[in-house]
Write a structure and sequence with these properties.
The structure holds two protein chains of two kinds.
Chain A: E1 6-15, E2 18-28, E3 33-37, H1 44-51, E4 59-64, E5 67-68, E6 71-73, E7 79-81, H2 84-91, E8 94-97, H3 109-119, H4 125-138, H5 154-166, E9 172-176, H6 184-200, E10 204-208, H7 212-218, E11 221-226, E12 229-234, H8 236-241, H9 246-258
Parallel strand pairs in A: 3-10, 3-11, 8-9, 9-10
Antiparallel strand pairs in A: 1-2, 1-4, 4-5, 6-7, 11-12
Helix pairs in contact in A: 3-4, 3-5, 4-5, 5-6
Chain B: H1 4-12, H2 15-40, H3 45-60, H4 63-78, H5 85-111, H6 114-122, H7 127-157, H8 169-179, H9 184-215
Classes of the chains: A alpha/beta, B mainly alpha.
Chain lengths: 259, 220
């Protein structure tokens, strides 16, 4: 049995009085593609934000490659809250693509892709440039490298964001509703890139998505989240075509009629 | 009755002092504003507390009183001498305007969308790298127009230094007027014109920066 690359152990997360995650246990295997679906407010996005260290869990443990993400041991061997250095040493294996792209507007497309490898990984600039150009070519933007983000369409921005995240060669890539902010006609080009990545890769992927057909197509496993718990999970076909729980049935019906 | 060129020549003797105080104050207040603005958004409670105290004290009291305080009260009370009167003036003006301008710095930093910080965390940038490469370059663009406005205000504030005996435009104007009472209107009109001429490049700078800021850069 393969060791999981990411483990959530009894994760709880509250924002003020509202408990968003109520005990999440979840193992992600290396290379596994997991789709998170569920109604808004069910905690899908929070799950991946915790792994990216954008939010801190209220309780529970997240491990990446067996290393405790949010806690570290001090000199006496006691557990203390992780500092920036500890987080940085672990989250290098994690990458993320955001709903609203979050490209750096003051840098060109190429600079966006080159920044982190140059200053974080301290790689040779010419090497990085070469890799960045290849990566941008892969996402079909080799003619846009000198442009600034505000000169691109939403779909193009999202493809840049993916290239930028891939530059750090993460072992786990998180996708936070990456097509939700796009005009419908631009969704396809972004999904196409993700599909290529999924087919190509040994990279694990966690996708928060509302694209059910897409989840069915690329995911190894689908998780249905409802009110902060994993209500149902399993093979995409089982989950999306023959749902067991009433809530999931409800959700899928509402989803397809609203579309 | 003296002609306008004659009076102008007398006033221009004060140009040097006005310019020196202006340029030094612009530089020092900028440094103070950056340091204090960054301190206000730091994680260090002691630092933010201290800076907040400084900002409120200097915003909350008048510049003239601060000038007098540095010039007359500190030396008398604590035997602290700040050196030449020019430095006293520069220090008082810079601390006063630095306090105001630090609020622009703080505001601009806070107005960079949180998604920018999140994206740089996702790319594993350190706290310092996030500030240096992502937040500050974007914040500077946003703060420039407001910054230009404060430079103009600093220019106008330099006219106060005549009150602690520095020989600027206004000082020479006042001296001249006291012996040529009937020419007061001419003197003060000329002084106004001189200040306006000095402000012109700063006004131009502000306009230009407004355009730059408009071009930038909110949505990634």
């Amino acid at each position: 049995m393969e060791e999981p690359i990411v483990q959530y152990k009894d994760i709880h997360k509250s924002f003020g009085d509202v408990e968003v995650l109520k005990g999440i246990d979840l193992d992600i295997l290396p290379g596994e593609k997991v789709a998170l679906i569920g109604p808004s407010g069910s905690g899908k996005t929070t799950i991946i934000r915790l792994l990216m260290t954008l939010e801190q869990p209220t309780s529970g443990i997240i491990e990446v490659n067996g290393r405790n993400l949010w806690q570290m041991t001090d000199k006496k061997g006691e557990y203390i809250e992780a500092d920036d250095k500890h987080l940085r040493s672990i989250r290098g294996d994690i990458g993320m693509v955001f709903q609203h792209f979050n490209l750096f507007p003051h840098m060109t497309i190429l600079e966006n892709c080159m920044l982190a490898p140059t200053i974080v990984s301290k790689k040779d600039k010419n090497e990085v440039r070469k890799t960045a150009l290849e990566m941008l070519d892969k996402v079909g933007l080799s003619d846009k490298v000198e442009l600034y983000p505000n000169q691109l369409s939403g779909g193009q921005k999202q493809r840049v964001a993916m290239a930028r995240a891939l530059m750090m060669r993460p072992k786990v890539m998180l996708f936070d509703e990456v097509t939700s902010a796009l005009d419908p006609e631009l969704v396809g080009e972004v999904l196409e890139v993700i599909r290529d990545l999924a087919k190509a890769g040994d990279m694990a992927m966690i996708l928060v998505t509302h694209e059910m057909d897409f989840a069915l197509d690329i995911a190894d496993r689908v998780l249905f989240l409802n009110e902060g718990v994993i209500e149902e999970q399993g093979d995409p076909r089982e989950i999306l075509v023959t749902p067991k729980s009433a809530r999931l049935k409800d959700f899928l019906v509402r989803f397809t009629t609203n579309r | 009755m003296s002609s306008i060129p004659d009076i102008s020549l007398i006033l221009l003797k004060g140009l040097k002092v006005t310019l020196i105080v202006l340029v030094l104050s612009m530089m020092l207040s900028t440094i103070i504003a950056l340091v204090a603005g960054l301190s206000r958004v730091s994680n260090n409670r002691l630092l933010t507390g201290f800076t907040k105290f400084y900002v409120e004290i200097f915003r909350g009291t008048s510049l003239i009183v601060q000038l007098f305080w540095f010039s007359y009260a500190l030396p008398g009370l604590f035997n602290i001498h700040l050196g030449s009167d020019i430095w006293v003036a520069v220090l008082a003006i810079s601390l006063n305007y630095g306090a105001y301008m630090s609020e622009i710095v703080r505001g601009a930093i806070l107005s960079v969308p949180p998604g920018q910080t999140e994206a740089s965390i996702a790319l594993n940038l350190s706290r310092f790298q996030r500030m240096r490469h992502i937040i500050i370059p974007q914040a500077i663009r946003m703060m420039l127009p407001e910054y230009g406005n404060y430079l103009i205000q600093i220019l106008k504030a330099t006219s106060l230094v005549s009150l602690i005996g520095l020989t600027d435009f206004l000082y020479y104007g006042n001296i001249y007027r006291s012996t040529h009472l009937t020419e007061a209107p001419t003197v003060y009109i000329l002084i106004l014109i001189f200040y306006f001429l000095l402000a012109l490049p700063l006004i131009g700078f502000t306009r230009k920066m407004e355009k730059v800021a408009k071009k930038g850069v909110v949505h990634g």
